[in-house]
Amino acid sequence: MTELDGSCIGRERECQQLSALASEGGGQALVIRGEAGLGKSSLLAWAVRQAEQQGHVVARAVGVEAEWALPFAGLHQLLYPLLRTSGAEDECPTVLDVVLGRVAGPAPSLMSLGTAVLDLLARVSSRKPVLVAIDDAQWFDGPSSEVCGFIGRRLTAGAVKMVVTIRCDSGSRFDTAAIPELHLGPLSDSAAQELLDTHYPQLDPQSRRIVLEHAEGNPLALLELPRCMERRDGELSLPNSVEPQWWVPLSRRLEQMYRPRLEALEPSVQLELLRGALDGVGSLSSAGASQEMRYRLRNVDEAVARGLVSVEPTSGNLFFRHPLVRSAVVHMATPNERRAAHSALARCHHNDVERRAGHLAAATVDPDEEVATELEAAARSATLRGGAATAVAWLTRAAELSEHTARRSRRLGDAAFVAGHSALFDQALQLVGSSDPPSRRASPPPQSSLPHTWSSISAATWNPCTGVWSRPLSAFIAGRLRTALTRCSLEC
Ligand SMILES: Nc1ncnc2c1ncn2[C@@H]1O[C@H](COP(=O)(O)OP(=O)(O)OP(=O)(O)O)[C@@H](O)[C@H]1O
Ligand SMILES: [Mg+2]
């Protein structure tokens, strides 16, 4: 019989499935998919506790919105504990060191990187079974998701298990990874009542009925709605903002439950929470996963008192109580407040070219040559680590922020080149064909990036964004782009 604790009421069947996964021989992967607040992270945390009690090695990672565009931010969280456990940290540099940015080298392919991570997992699991636990994978960056999907499909031998949680209303690169799935539904009526009565034994019968009706078996709603009840015209009811409205996605409706408490905070606390949210401070369920690169919340006692932020008992670090608190904080802020917070965060990350670039790109509105130059440097760093898609986005943004037409065209040309080199041909074509970035269409004079792309391609052996491209490959890209462009012009 599966031992359950109070965090998994009514989830006996799911916990049994996770126990079976852990005890079966051979490697396996499982995706837990479900709507916001249904208890995916709680189930994953339960599986992690079980694995730790049995002496397994656990590598944890959590996706956050703020790191969605940072190449390998997710893999980074998984690799450090595994490298430490395997004792491979001091060995010769490998492709893993390239993606971690520790050594320079050719950007690794998905195949070579996936194989290197599989080798590392095999090495660690030869001593102890391993659980790879990935929470909120809908926010995992693209390259990490691809590598983890690659690994998940190949865990047949060895003692490595992988469990991944994904919200079902968000797309993810795990969607095409062909990993078996567990679809999480709402709690049964009896489990919902048990959860509510355990946490709110004193709730009056009218509120209890309203909460059970509105929560529809969603554990997060069962825990948060009682705090939202208000008295209107002498009657207890829920505010209109959290009433069910079919056109509003569930995650947005659940977010509303935190709004009144967030609005009641001092402005300085709201701004501190905004900085934390925009830099990816985790939720309590992610406590223990890597946090060292992110902003540290300070002076938010009021938010702790209102149950919006929690203190992790072992480290004393502050975390959002739930990822939806983080989203609510961001959605409540005005565009100006968000830009100011990104600016402050860019200053905090002055030593980290890529994190800084992400914040600068979001903080800057008007053309700014200094910011454009920093984005170019970040794009170079991302390209060399294998994060071409991010590099293309940053070069495009650098083009938008360029003060001079020639530089703008050169940056668009470089973006097209990096896209073409990474087989992102649709994007490359769009960039080559674009006279100007969309936000600058009104400003004269338009100038195609095409000549700059050709010069990037023909000078590929020394292009600063590439460093290592070979001439035959450059010729191939040039050929593909030329053919596609000719086809486009014939069709028009
Ligand atoms: N079966 C359960 N028994 C008791 N508490 C639960 C259960 N499931 C979830 N909870 C509680 O409900 C809240 C929401 O759960 P959780 O964060 O795991 O949801 P989630 O599916 O991961 O949501 P999201 O998609 O937003 O990440 C948490 O406070 C959690 O402790
Ligand atoms: Mg979760």
UniProtKB/TrEMBL annotation:
Question: What are the UniProt keywords, alphabetically?
Answer: ATP-binding, Nucleotide-binding
Please report the stretch or stretches of sequence annotated as the Orc1-like AAA ATPase domain: 8-157
Phylogenetic placement of the source organism: Bacteria, Bacillati, Actinomycetota, Actinomycetes, Kitasatosporales
> Where are the annotated segments for Disordered?
433-453
What the entry lists under SUPFAM superfamilies is as follows: P-loop containing nucleoside triphosphate hydrolases (SSF52540)
What protein name is recorded for this chain? Answer: AAA family ATPase
Q: Give one Pfam family, short name only.
A: AAA_16
Q: What organism is recorded for this protein? A: Streptomyces chiangmaiensis
- The organism's superkingdom is given as Bacteria
InterPro entries in the record, alphabetically? AAA_16 (IPR041664), P-loop_NTPase (IPR027417)
